[in-house]
Design the sequence.
């Protein structure tokens, strides 16, 4: 039984088909018959990009997905056509790497069409767990009860699992939060046939903590006739819904593609906004007696600052770990230990960068000042050294563990770059 029919729940249901006689997905929302948002996915209209890791796992579970997306105009972009920049400076081109900007409702719709015909969908809401402190035997729904050998919580960052567990007399897993006060705003723009912006089809622009208005802006061609553009900011600089204010922010963006967008293209939709108050992770590996028969995936485990694009890749990795754990047949503690390794890597990548922003509050990891200094040096080296830039991109795209940036050869290149910068000041 899977609670939630978002991306994490759909991926979990697909993976469970290889392990179960019957898979039941419980979802309270009406699921649209076409690409579109719904109450359970208020962030779906915002910019999404699939990292190579997520694409590989999606290709494994859905071999026809890439062709279906291509038929709807979604095309992978080489690093020649899509670039990343920091404070207006472009990062070095990394050969043989691809970007896949997507409209999230389109991807979720295709995955939903592939999964739901093969499972039982129940339109209902989970209000509790059946079982006892030792083992979960199903869920209590608003309209009845559903027995299950395994319950997968894929109900998102707002999961009620803590309440469900307290109903069984179980203390929920402890949580950690990093308070971000992030907001982002998105609009679709009309695109002329074959149009490029500043010679590019996609730009990911980071405004660092040194910039007056830290945040991220992204623009990409998501179909032959549409651009998708998102602006993100923090605190009092969170973007709003006003079309003219959105336009002014794009004109002030240091990467020139954004000014080119508003000067040459007309908006195709109103501005959609979403607020992300904090990152959160649930440390299931530290829980006191997590019952058997209950696991979690996706944002119900950890929900990171969305500007890093870790949501779908993390959910896919959680589901892959769940599938391997089921094949192994070990205890639930073994699953959450697998999960800890994955979450630690993604959490480190995001929170080290987040804590460079002076307004961010939360539990800083041990040794974070050293990590900040080393991370800043690696970031600067990645702007000039193609070898460091390649390794940095591999970590950001979750192909490699963050510890790869601490290898002696990478640290040596970063230190040499720091020495060069001091000599040129």
Sequence:
């Amino acid at each position: 039984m899977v609670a939630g029919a978002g991306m994490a729940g759909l991926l979990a249901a697909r993976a469970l088909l290889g392990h179960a006689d019957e898979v039941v997905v419980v979802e309270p929302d009406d699921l649209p018959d076409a690409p579109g948002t719904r109450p359970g996915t208020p962030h779906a209209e915002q910019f999404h990009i699939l990292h190579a890791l997520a694409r590989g796992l999606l290709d494994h579970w859905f071999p026809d997905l890439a062709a279906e997306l291509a038929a709807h105009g979604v095309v992978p972009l080489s690093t020649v056509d899509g670039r990343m920049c920091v404070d207006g400076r472009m990062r070095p081109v990394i050969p043989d790497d691809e970007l896949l900007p997507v409209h999230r409702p389109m991807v979720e719709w295709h995955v939903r069409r592939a999964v739901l015909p093969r499972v039982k969908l129940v339109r209902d809401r989970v209000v509790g767990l059946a079982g006892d402190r030792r083992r979960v035997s199903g869920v209590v729904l608003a309209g009845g009860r559903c027995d299950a050998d395994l319950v997968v919580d894929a109900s998102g960052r707002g999961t009620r699992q803590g309440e469900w567990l307290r109903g069984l007399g179980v203390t929920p897993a402890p949580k950690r939060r990093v308070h971000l006060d992030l907001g982002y705003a998105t609009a679709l723009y009309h695109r002329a046939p074959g149009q490029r912006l500043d010679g590019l089809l996609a730009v990911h622009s980071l405004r660092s903590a040194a910039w007056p208005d830290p945040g991220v802006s992204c623009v990409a061609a998501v179909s032959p006739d549409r651009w998708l553009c998102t602006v993100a900011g923090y605190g009092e600089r969170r973007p709003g819904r006003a079309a003219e204010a959105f336009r002014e922010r794009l004109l002030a963006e240091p990467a020139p593609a954004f000014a080119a967008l508003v000067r040459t293209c007309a908006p195709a939709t109103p501005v959609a906004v979403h607020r992300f108050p904090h990152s959160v992770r649930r440390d299931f590996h530290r829980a006191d007696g997590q019952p058997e028969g209950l696991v979690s995936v996706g944002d119900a485990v950890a929900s990171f600052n969305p500007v890093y694009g870790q949501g779908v890749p993390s959910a896919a990795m959680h589901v892959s770990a769940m599938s391997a754990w089921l094949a192994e047949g070990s205890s639930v503690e073994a699953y959450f230990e697998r999960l800890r390794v994955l979450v630690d890597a993604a959490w480190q990548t995001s929170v080290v960068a987040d804590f460079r922003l002076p307004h961010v509050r939360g539990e800083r990891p041990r040794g974070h000042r050293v990590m900040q200094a080393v991370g800043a040096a690696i970031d600067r080296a990645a702007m000039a050294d193609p070898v460091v830039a390649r390794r940095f991109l591999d970590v950001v795209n979750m192909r490699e563990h963050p510890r790869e940036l601490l290898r002696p050869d990478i640290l040596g290149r970063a230190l040499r770059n720091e020495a060069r910068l001091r000599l040129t000041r």
